[in-house]
Write a structure and sequence with these properties.
3-stranded antiparallel beta sheet; 14 helices; 6-stranded parallel beta sheet; single chain
Length: 320
């Protein structure tokens, strides 16, 4: 048998595809899968794994850093939570900052090429190509959070980040303009939100600021770890959708190793692996640590999550 005949009998051929205005995201991802070329095929595999993670038998962790919450992807993340795909969120303190601040004030579209000295003099912070005026960030967070924290820490001096996030979501649910809030969606769906680095952001700084008036308050991080332990050990199957790296990704895979690793995983990243960083580490590396099962269904998708996640998520909804 010739090599060509052997391939024809065992492998799918590469297929060309075309696009038209009537195609939805799910149709486009399916066409990419049939095309079978480079990263395009990974989108379809990611959609298949996401669809599997939606199974009630799978406990799914969603991890991501804060920057993307400053963008419109915040609405997609909140939708994923409301849609029942997510059983727990692990993120950074900046997620709380941006989710709260954007509930009360607007951020604005800018450019990567703007004059940062000029922006600084005008009291505007640049996050990539998103503009964050001082009054839309630190100022509004202090104005709104200090009264809330006065009530919260008077009732209880130490808070796990899980309980703190639930309470913030509960309070946001009473306010206008919060339908796309991640914290509100998590509260209403009873999805715990964990922030393993709670002082690395404006909300954590506001807790510190309040501690200058009320000594003996703070975070109960061990309570968070116990809740994560209960979540992981109680899982029949464990899945993770990880957007970017850092502490959020590591905390998800760190806890996964204690139950012999993840069963399903999607990792979307722009980082490179040559520097040995966790953010750049492919999921294959996690197998050596026992953080991902040898039999796991997984995919690494290289690219910007603000581009990739909406496509993968849309395709996964049709695949369920």
């Amino acid at each position: 048998m010739s090599t060509t005949e052997a391939l024809r009998g065992s492998l799918d051929p590469v297929r060309d595809y075309t696009v038209d205005p009537a195609m939805g995201a799910a149709d486009l991802v399916e066409a990419m899968f049939q095309a079978g070329g480079f990263s395009a095929k990974k989108l379809a595999l990611g959609a298949e794994i996401l669809a599997r993670c939606a199974d009630p038998k799978v406990t799914t962790i969603l991890s991501f850093p804060a920057a993307m919450v400053a963008t419109g992807l915040r609405g997609v993340i909140a939708q994923m939570i409301r849609d029942g795909l997510v059983d727990a969120v692990i993120t950074t303190c900046g997620t709380l900052d941006h989710d709260l601040a954007r509930s009360w004030r607007d951020y604005y579209q800018g450019s990567f090429a703007m004059d940062d000295k000029d922006l600084h003099q005008r009291g505007v912070n640049r996050l990539g190509n998103v503009l964050v005026p001082n009054e839309s960030y630190g100022e509004i967070l202090e104005e709104r959070l200090q009264p809330w924290f006065a009530e919260m820490f008077a009732a209880k001096p130490y808070w796990s980040t899980k309980d703190l996030c639930r309470e913030l979501g509960r309070r946001l649910a009473r306010e206008p303009r919060t339908e796309h809030s991640i914290l509100r969606a998590a509260h209403e769906r009873d999805v715990p939100v964990f922030v393993p680095g709670p002082t690395d952001g404006a909300v954590g700084s506001q807790v510190w600021l309040h501690s200058q008036k009320r000594r003996g308050i703070g975070f109960d991080l061990i309570a968070d770890e116990q809740a994560l332990s209960d979540l992981v050990y109680g899982a029949t199957e464990l899945g993770a959708v990880m957007l970017g790296g850092g502490i959020s990704k590591h905390h998800a895979i760190w806890w996964s190793q204690f139950r012999d690793g993840l069963d399903h995983a999607v990792y979307i990243t722009t980082a490179q692996e040559y520097d040995g960083s966790l953010s750049g580490a492919r999921l294959e590396e996690a197998i050596s640590w026992g953080k991902l099962k040898e039999t796991a269904r997984f995919v690494n998708i290289e690219g910007d999550a603000t581009l990739i996640l909406p496509l993968v998520y849309a395709a996964s909804r049709r695949a369920r």
